[in-house]
Every structure is written in C-alpha cells, then in structure tokens.
User: Fold this.
Amino acid sequence: MSVLAHVPTGSGQSAPLPAARSGRYRLLPYLLLLPGAAWLFLFFAVPLFQLAAASLYDPSGSLSTGYALTWAFGNYPEALQAYWPQFTRSFLYAGIALVLALLMGYPLAYAIAQKAGRWKNLLLVCVIAPMFTSFLVRTLAWKTILSDNGALVGLLRDVHLLGADGRLLATPVAVVLGLTYNFLPFLVLPLYASLERLDHRLLEAASDLYASPVRAFRKVTLPLSMPGLVAGTLLFFIPASGDYINAELLGTPNEYMIGNVIDSAFLVRLDYPQGAALSFLLMAAILAVVFVYLRRAGTDEVL
Amino acid sequence: MGHDAPAGDLRLANLTKRFGVFTAVDDLSLTIPQGSFFALLGASGCGKTTTLRMIAGLEEPTSGQVLLGDRDIARLRPYKRPVNTVFQSYALFPHLDIFENVAFGLRRRGIRSVGDQVERMLSLVQLDGYGRRRPAQLSGGQQQRVALARALINHPKVLLLDEPLGALDLKLRRQMQIELKRIQTEVGITFVHVTHDQEEAMTMADTVAVMNAGRIEQLGAPADMYEFPATAFVANFLGQSNLLAAEAAGAGGGEVAVSAHGGRFSVPAGRARADRGPVYLGVRPEKLHLVGSADQVPAGHQHVTGVVTDASYVGVSTQYLLRTGWGSELTVFVANSGAYGRLPVGTQAVAHWDPRHAFLLHREPGEHDRTTPVLDEPVGASS
Assistant:
C-alpha cells in the first residue's frame, strides 16, 4: 500500500555532501538500491522471462515429455480464440465492480477525510480491518451471506426482488459483489489520502465565486482528488480483473474469469504454454487499459 | 425597513453570532455607504472575521440582518450573494492556471466569452502575461493580486478582504496598500477590509471601525479617531497614548479641570468624553515635548516633570521614557528634526503639551495609569 505514503517530493533529498567525501558516498544510493533491485531481478524479471519463454513452447509438449522452445507465436491467437469470452467477462465484471465500488467508496472516503472529525482513525481502521483476515476467508463468508438459505436471499424473495426460487450465489451478481467487496479498501485508501489533503477553504472560495455545491464538487473537489482517484481505480481494477477466487467460490464455470482459466491451465490441465500465453495477454490488456486511462485522466502525478 | 437606504449601502442590523456560549459578534449594527473603503480593525478574536464571514455567507448569523440596499441577504447561500471575498489564505485553486482562477466566477455564472475581461483584470492587478502559470509558480504578492482579480472580476456589490496582506512582508504590504487603494478608487466598489494592523486600516480606509469583544468601540474617519479616541481601548489600539488616571471636577468656562497625581490640568470641553468623576487624561506621545526645566515651558502649555529612563533612537524620531514623580513612565516621541539635542538617560526633563491636544476619556474607578512601553518600530508602524 505504498500509495498511502505520499512522500513530499523535493524535500526528501539529502543535503549536498562536502566535496572531499563525495567520492566515497557517491556509490551509497546504488548500494541502498541493491537489495531491492536484486529481489526484483530474481523474483520478477527472471520468472517473467521464463514465463515469456514458456508462452512460446511447442504446445504439443507436456510436463512428462518435456517442452521445447519452438517460438510458437501461434499460442497467442489460439489462446485468445479459445478464451476470449473469459477475457471480456473479466473486464466486464471488474468494470461493473469498479463502478459499484466508486459509488460506495468515494462518498465513504470523502466522509472519513472531511467530515469524520475525531472518528476518522476509527473509521479508517474499519476500512482496513477486513484485511486482517485472509482473502479466502472473506470470500467464503460472502458465500454464506449470499447462500440460498441465507437471510439476504430470504429478504429479497420476500420483497419479490428475487423470484421464489431465485438465487444470488452462483450468479454473475455474486461474483461482482465479491469483487466489489474484496477490493474496495484499495480504492478507498488512496482516495482518502487525496481527499484528506483537500483544503476546505477552497470550497468556501468556490462557493463565494458562485459555485453551487454540485459545481464546487465537479470543479474543485473532483479534480483535486484525481491523483487518489486514479491510483485507487488502478489498485482496484488491476487485481480485480485478474482475480479468480471470487468466480471460483461465488460463481460457476459460467462466471469464470480469465484468472480461472490461467489457474486451470497451470494447475489442472498442465498446459504451460497456454497458461503463459494467457498470462501475457492479460498483462498486455491491463497495460493497454491503464495506459489509455492515464492518458485520458491526464494526471502527471502517476506517470 | 431600509426605506431610506440608498440602493447599494451595506447595513448590518443587530447582527449577532454565538458559538456555543461564546458570543463572537454581539448585536452589531452599522452602515457602510456604497463605494466606500471600510476597515474593520481589531485584535484577533474580536469578531471582525466572523462579521466578514457572515456578510459573505460562510457563517450564518445567530440573529440579525445583513442588508444590501433593502434586501436582507443574511440567509442566502454564499453562491447566491453579490459579494466576493479575498481570503487571507488566498485560496487559489491549485489545479487551475491563473487565467482559469480569475475566470472561475464568470464561468460559474454561465458567461461564455471571458477572455477579454480576464485579460483586463490581470492588467489591472499588473499580472499581464501570467495567465498560463499555476498559483504555486507565483510569489505571495502575485498570488494576492490573483485573489483580488478573481474576486473583482465579478463586479460584486461588496468586496470583502480578510486580512489580505497579512502574509506579505512589510515592504510588499506597503506597496499593496497603495495598490489596493488605487484599485478601489478605480472600480468604485465598496471594500470591507478586515485587519488587525492599525496602520493598514488608517492608510487605506475612509472609515474605520475598531472592534473589541464582538462590539464596535468606535467608528469614524481615521484622523478623527486618532486625534480624539472615544475609549481607552481605541486610544491604545490606534497608535499609542499616555493615559493618566485623573479626577474631573466638571466643565466650566469651556474647559474641564482635572487633577492627576497632585497636578492640576485642564482640557477643552470639546475634547472631553467625560467631565466628572474618574477620567483618563490622554496625550499622544508625539504631542508631548521635552525641555530641560519648567521655565522653558511655553505659555499656555501644561507639564509634568520626570527623569529620562530610556532613549531609543529609531531614525525618524527618538522615543523617550520619562519616569514621573509617581512612578509611571510616559512615552515621548521627539522628531529628529535637528532642532533639539538628545537627552541622555538619567537627566531631569519636563514633558509639556498644548491642552488642546489632550483628551479626556471615561475611566472605571480603580483603574490606574495606562502608559505603553516604547516599541522598537517608528510611530504608527504595525507590530
């Protein structure tokens, strides 16, 4: 959650060192960088290359017979052709969940940042508290909440929002609700950090300059919370679109997202080339979405 | 109500604001004529900013009216009032450039072509060519001008200025004081200026209201108030005064005779706020003159004798402390015009004054002399 720690830019630099000592200390920043860089290299760059190589293996190989690197670029169109519904579903579900999360998360972050007063810290803890339990447990809890015999379904049936044998579990609704819930804090926390810095005197100024509350929100609050909004939506959307736990536990194969396909390719069907190719396609798609989004949102703070 | 008020006068009628048990503004009534430069002067916490915020609509009055012409605007939302504010913190929008900051009010009122007006306003505050910069790229003085332009462009009926020069250094502040005065004369809009800086108020305003504890102590033209303050608070808030605890024996023959610390003095009846019982006999430090002995005191002047205990040379004047026989220290400012030599500390001296420069103020029984220590700034300089 590094987004929360907004380091003041510019003030973090150390004072210039005396010339006589600069020789010995010039290497220091690089030395400090070394552990992190080594970690990143070993556990990110190397596996990434390995995965890239795997995505180009001969698809006729298997774990028992061994794989040969045959530069089989055909893995990509094949994987896409076979699983494009899961791809679109991933982005669709993540997108709907994002909209729901924004509708809940923005007012929540705003209220905590600007209106909560002395309850601020307690409310923040409440936002983070679910993180103290595992992702899996939280999702399983939702399975209970949405279950056919549960109170929620019973209530919805009573008010005829659901038919007599209507259900929530094992439907797209359940998966989207699960995604919304599980990733909501990632949206709320950066937004909170942005909104917390919002100077309410600017809103007074806007109001003094003929802006109604709605206009003041659109012209002052929203633009000024943009860095947090962008960071929050990315932190929400990226893991949500790659997620497979929610579809696995709250949905059926009809709700499977691309994460489920990758999961099964690696762990069930043992089709490594396809799993790797799908992973890269997912990464490329997310990068494309993020890139377009950042260009449109136009926040120089993030890129 | 308000049938005889000209269209644009701003009137506060019995305006009161309470925060819990604390009364910030206490039954305030005053009229600010259209087109005037009005200053609300007072120490922090006296209620001047709360008054301003109630005019702006950022604070809702507990009771009372804010009348613009004969319309009560006290309950209108701020964005519905023909009033704009220059905030103490400037409150410029950091995500908008200077042009858009200045155009903000026009755009919110649905005015499409703002370019010409913004350019004209930027040149009025001498910021031509700064339109594309961000507020953070400007100096404090420039930001202050942007805040002014952003408010003025809307041609408000009343412009409110909340300590707009507080964050500027002394030299820039002087420059902006003159600038503000020039702009006010040029645009002819009513300015209501809140400040704790008495020099600022006196330099710029046509009318000054000195506030204390939520009420107005005195209201008037700066020179009138300085020359003849109404209360001991005003006498010492607007410049400095030597106030001697005295007893007045009543008016007679156009004069009020008073006795103080064994001496007998008199003040013209027209300069007495009280003429019987406990009073303060007040003389401004620059109205006191120092001579070596009592026989040098000019005819008609009154005097007290003392010992010089401090002499601070501050360039334009020398500021003396004169310890009187009864132990109070009078402050005396002597202009360094070259006419007199300097008096060393420890010498006997006589302070004398023209009784027409003295004034009498009401004093609560039991209150003692009020003489202020010498400041290390020249006469009238802000602290």
